[in-house]
């Protein structure tokens, strides 16, 4: 994917360097265009070194006749060669110029010449973001089909707290890839994904849980959204941003997760159960905080409902993908779980292996398929693993349909 990264002149311009890198990590070719104001905050050399490409900084170059002639059509060439224009940070000034169709410099001229997808990531002081003029400009741009990624809330560079902060560059990069991705082989599907741990209350302040960070499930949700699916992410408590275009259903306990999944079931065409669901919950959680005493204490635990197995019993013609977190006998346990829970595929994860599984950014899994195939995927980022899971799942569905 060819992406133009337009950088406006705001304090968040420094984050655009991270965004350039995050886009390239996702396979994009990145052409950076800096406004003159952006050049005051961050030097072109930073972007040139990161992208290994000349950075465009103004409309007429240095002013020599030769350069004026070649640069006078450069905005047309750049517009034609790229699929997506992302502007981050999009300042109030840039939003106003885009909305009004003004073209005093390269980026604004390029905006007018560009016919691909436009993604704007505004960042500014809260009062500027909430000003009626900015609101009107944003509404006008959104009505024109530009995607406006709303700024985060938090502490701003100006010292105030409120909406106006540029979202995490990795999150923006994922949104750009999701919007610009041409492969839409999950269009028309509703993919329900579970992620993260569950928390089983002991009393109002304590719970039993596990080490799941949610990264695997969130990566699967991002991949599915990117490929065009409607995605419902049923997530236990985690500290992650919800991927662009994904609907979140936040839950805490296994019982809540079960109810949320069963509510989504009628619409679902693919279900992916990557959550680390507690196998037991406290039989009688205390209504008040338990007092500490010197005596030994024991908890009575009851089994939780097995959500994967319940979905398996009501699967219909849905594709059901389970996970198996194992410390030994990976394939045998994965196959046993697939058969007993009526899943079509199990993603078996050797969580005792160093550097993968719980909490890490990478994973190394073995796919156990209903067709009898066993496919060991190489170690890769969870996002890459997520795409490979869908590649094999779609192929598996075709094979299963051909058999029936
Ligand atoms: O979240 P991360 O930090 O990125 O880590 C990723 C992961 C290690 C959590 C993930 O890759 C993984 O292995 N998830 C499955 C964890 C698990 O609970 O495995 P299990 O073997 O105990 O359960 C088997 C399957 O049954 C799973 O699909 C699980 O979601 C499901 N299950 C389990 C218990 C239960 N009560 N209901 C269920 O649906």
Could you characterize what this model shows?
The chain has 404 residues and is α/β, with parallel strands linked by helices. It has two domains: 2-180, 3-Layer(aba) Sandwich (Rossmann fold); 190-403, CoaB-like (Rossmann fold, 3-Layer(aba) Sandwich). It has helices spanning 15-25, 36-41, 44-51, 65-71, 74-81, 92-100, 106-113, 126-130, 132-143, 169-180, 215-226, 254-264, 307-313, 330-340, 382-403, and strands at residues 2-7, 29-34, 84-90, 117-122, 147-148, 152-155, 161-165, 190-195, 200-203, 206-208, 230-235, 246-250, 270-273, 280-282, 301-303, 319-326, 345-350, 362-363, 365-369, 374-376, 380-381. The strands form six sheets. An eight-stranded mixed beta sheet has the order 12-11-8-13-16-17-19-20, sandwiched between helices. A five-stranded parallel beta sheet has the order 2-1-3-4-5, with helices on both faces. The chain has a two-stranded antiparallel sheet with strand order 6-7. The relative contact order is 0.09. The structure holds ligand PMT. The site of ligand PMT has 28 residues, from helix 11, helix 13 and strand 16. Ligand PMT binds at residues 194, 196, 212-216, 254, 273-277, 279, 304, 306-308, 322-325, 337, 349, 351, 357-359.
């Amino acid at each position: 994917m060819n992406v133009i990264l337009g950088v406006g002149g705001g304090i968040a311009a420094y984050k655009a360097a991270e965004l350039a890198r995050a886009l390239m990590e996702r396979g994009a070719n990145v052409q950076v265009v800096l406004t003159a104001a952006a050049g005051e905050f961050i030097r072109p050399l930073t972007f040139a070194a990161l992208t290994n490409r000349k950075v465009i900084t103004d409309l007429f170059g240095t002013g020599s006749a030769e350069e004026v002639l070649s640069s006078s059509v450069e905005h047309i060439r750049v517009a034609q060669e790229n699929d997506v224009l992302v502007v981050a940070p999009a300042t109030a000034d840039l939003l106003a110029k885009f909305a009004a169709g003004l073209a005093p410099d390269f980026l604004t001229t390029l905006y007018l010449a560009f016919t691909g997808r436009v993604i704007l990531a505004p960042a500014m002081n809260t009062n500027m973001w909430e000003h009626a003029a900015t609101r009107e400009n944003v509404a006008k741009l959104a009505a024109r089909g530009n995607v406006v990624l709303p700024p985060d809330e938090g502490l701003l560079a100006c010292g105030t707290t409120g909406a106006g902060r540029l979202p995490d560059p990795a999150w923006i990069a994922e949104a750009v890839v999701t919007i610009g991705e041409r492969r839409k082989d999950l269009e028309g599907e509703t993919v329900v994904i579970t992620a993260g741990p569950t928390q089983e209350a002991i009393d109002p302040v304590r719970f039993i849980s596990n080490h799941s960070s949610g990264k695997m499930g969130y990566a699967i949700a991002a991949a599915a959204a990117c490929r065009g699916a409607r995605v419902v992410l049923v997530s236990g408590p985690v500290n992650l941003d919800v991927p662009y275009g994904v609907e979140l259903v936040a839950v805490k306990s296994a019982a809540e997760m079960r109810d949320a999944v069963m509510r989504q079931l009628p619409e679902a065409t693919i279900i992916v159960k990557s959550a680390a669901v507690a196998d037991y919950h406290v039989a009688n959680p205390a209504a008040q905080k338990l007092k500490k005493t010197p005596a030994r204490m024991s908890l009575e635990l009851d089994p939780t409902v097995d959500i994967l197995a319940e979905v398996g019993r009501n699967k219909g013609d849905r594709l059901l993908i389970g996970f198996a977190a194992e410390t030994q006998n990976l394939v045998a346990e994965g196959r046993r779980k697939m058969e007993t829970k009526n899943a079509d595929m199990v993603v078996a994860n050797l969580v005792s292996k160093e550097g993968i599984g719980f909490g890490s950014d990478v994973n190394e899994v073995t796919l156990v398929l209903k067709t009898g195939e066993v496919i060991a995927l190489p170690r890769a980022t969870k996002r890459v693993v997520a795409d490979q899971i869908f590649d094999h799942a779609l192929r598996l569905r075709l094979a299963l349909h051909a058999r029936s």
